[in-house]
Every structure is written in structure tokens, then in C-alpha cells.
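Contributing new records

If you add data, match the layout below exactly. Sequence lines come first and carry their own label; structure lines follow with theirs. Keep one chain per record. Anything else will be rejected by the validation script.
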Amino acid sequence: MPRVLVTGAAQGLGAEIARRLIALDYEVVVHGRDASRADVALAAAPGAAGAVTGRLDSFASTRLLADDARRRGPYDVIIHNAAAGGDQSSPVLTEDGLERIVQVNTVAPYLLSALLSLPRRIVFIGSDSAFHGRPAVDLAPPEPWDGPQAYADSKLLLTMLAFDLAARHTDRPINVVHPGWVRTRMGGPRAALPTSDGADTPVWMVTSDEAIARRTGQYVHRRRSEAAPAAAHDPALRAALIARLAEVTGEHLR
């Protein structure tokens, strides 16, 4: 039975993805930022194989998350779903000296990718806001501060990370999925899509043997491969980002 790790699974899209995969007889390990949220994630996804904990805005806690996840692995699939939204009214520096949004949305997925064994498939939950992002490979926040811009930047950098991993490991599907504007806590009540619609393509990318689901290095929306932001295809920009991520985390991709 394939085993899947879903980050950010206590509510919203992550919880819906976990439930759907469990219904398809996948072994699903869910994630919450602390023990309380892990319990919420388990309650939201009855039948989950277990839960792991760890905050993504802390290198130390993310490392503990990786340790916890390794004990429950290995994984056939990892879905990087956890994210911080752009509703901050001012920048928030973490204990590691990075702005919180970019640490949660970009740096933590990099660190987990460096610390965990490479699965057969990886799905990064992206956003079409990446098309408005700046390729801020130095990880610096926008000046003056702009929360939605910081979020867009982080999702562009996440897309670049995913495409770099795909270029390194062409033998397995590593892709970005834009789920659409989904009615979650982040998306808000006015969002166009229910979580069931948002979860459809990520789950399909995990479970399908159709051609798109088996290819790598794609930006996927509604089960279709679409044009990705130009920076994702720029090897020099990607290399600069990976070098910076390795510098700040002290870890290197395989």
C-alpha cells in the first residue's frame, strides 16, 4: 500500500487531500505544527496511518519534523501543502532571521527535501500568484512591505525549487499543482471553489497513471499541464536560489 506524507493537513486542502487518499487505500501520514494540531489532523482524516509534528517557521522544529517523518516512512509520495498566507500587515522575522512567509513556503520545503529520502512522486501545492512573484533568490522580503507580494514571491521560489528538483531527478514525477482559488482559511469564504475541487488535481497527480501525472517538471492546473512562470525554466536563477537555500539551511539537495 503506497505511503504518503501530507504537510499542513489539519484543515482545508491538506485535510481533504488526506481524506481522499485514505479512501483510495493509501497509507497517509498527516502533519500538524504541534501536538494539538496533529490531533486535529488525525481527527480530520479518519484512518490516517499516523501524524508528525513540526513548525515550518523554525529550522530546529523542521529538523525534528523530518526526524519524526523518517521514523514513519519511507514514503512513496510527499505532498508539500503547508503554507503561510500573505495577510501579514508587517514582516515577521523568525528565530532563524528569515521572513516567516518565505521560510514556511519555500525554505521549509527545501529543508524537508534535503533531509528526507526522495519519494517516487512529489507534489508541491503552488499558486497562480507565482506569476506575479519576484525571483528574489536572496530570500529578501519586498520593500516596502507588501504581504501579498511576499506570498507571490514565495510561491514563485517554490515553483523554481520544484522545477530544479525535477531537473535533478528526471526519473520520477516532481510537479507543481495550482489547485485554484479554494474556500479555505487562506482562500477565504469568497473563493470560487470548494475544497473538494481544489483537492482533485493533487490527488489525481498522486494516483493516476495518465501521461501528465507520470511526467515531471510541470505546472499543473485542472489536470492539465500549463505554462509555468518563466523563472522556473531559468537554470541560472534556479541555481542561485538553490545555492542560497543551501547557505541558509546548511543542507544540500541530493
